[in-house]
Write a structure and sequence with these properties.
40% of the residues lie in helices and 15% in strands. It has a six-stranded parallel beta sheet with strand order 2-1-3-4-7-8, with helices on both faces. Strands 5-6 form a two-stranded antiparallel sheet. Helix 1 packs parallel to helix 10 and helix 5 crosses helix 6. The radius of gyration is 18 Å and the shape is globular.
Length: 264
């Protein structure tokens, strides 16, 4: 019987945008996901994301017949880490893709930035509410995104999937962002600062794949995760969005890491 992977996406990128990577994972596993985390009013976005963790837990409880392998990118990896701390019985293993699991010094900096009101200057959330949110068609959305530096390294199929699956009908014949800008903004504004409070080795085998060109994690953060949580850390070519830049290679790396974690 094939194991199930539950995938959790990054902030602002619906899980369906990762279609190419998920299809590769599905060659060896059953794959499921929650397409847009944070959009259910029953699970509001609050400081340090406790309700988003509960949203993920509820989805896993209701969607699968037993423990899953949790794979999460950025926001999603953070939620998988917290969910596995709270409900280890739901997981066989965890693979975190370039999530901001920061050590004590940077976590304190996040806390201070929130207290002093400049958190949006140290996260990508500052311009979120100013972002364009409507296009006449999927093709026009694609042309717009293709000109943006953030998408320059995207795999062409992932860029096409973002234009199609990252947008939805706006009710007037056009397209708007599926992951709502206000939700994205609020998630960035409440980035957890309490990661070091969860010391203790993981009860679930856990690995982290960091983007080689990403600045999300520093050496001190990685060392902290290894020493205090027993997390196995590896590197993958690309930046923070490497799962959308190199989807097939990322899936192959995830599959190999899952195999090693299951042998621990």
């Amino acid at each position: 019987m094939r194991e199930t992977i539950h995938f959790a996406h990054a902030n602002s990128f619906p899980a369906s945008v990762y279609r190419k990577m998920l299809n590769k994972l599905a060659e060896r596993h059953e794959v499921g996901y929650l397409d847009t985390i944070g959009h259910d009013p029953a699970f509001p976005i609050t400081d340090c994301w406790p309700h988003l963790v509960d949203e993920s837990i509820r989805h896993i409880e209701r969607s699968y017949g037993g423990p899953v392998v949790g794979v999460g990118h950025s926001l999603g990896g953070f939620l998988m880490f917290y969910a596995a701390r709270k409900r280890p019985d739901l997981f066989r293993a965890i693979v975190i893709l370039d999530s901001p699991l920061m050590g004590p010094r940077r976590s304190f900096g996040i806390w201070l930035a929130k207290r002093l009101g400049f958190i949006q200057k140290v996260t990508p959330g500052g311009n979120t509410l100013k972002r364009r949110d409507n296009w006449a068609s999927v093709d026009m959305a694609h042309d717009y995104f293709a000109r943006k530096p953030m998408f320059a390294r995207f795999d062409p199929e992932c860029l096409a999937d973002y234009a199609e699956h990252g947008t939805q009908d706006d009710g007037q014949g056009g397209r708007r962002l599926k992951f709502r800008p206000r939700v994205e903004h609020d998630i960035y504004a409440t980035l957890p600062h309490n990661f070091p409070c969860h010391k203790g080795r993981q009860k679930v085998p856990t690995g982290l794949i960091a983007g080689a060109d990403s600045d999300v994690l520093g050496d001190a953060d990685i060392d902290y995760m290894r020493r205090h949580f027993g997390i196995e850390v590896e590197s993958h070519p690309g930046g923070h969005l490497f799962p959308l830049e190199r989807p097939i290679e990322t899936a192959e790396h995830v599959l190999a890491l899952v195999e090693r974690l299951r042998q621990r």
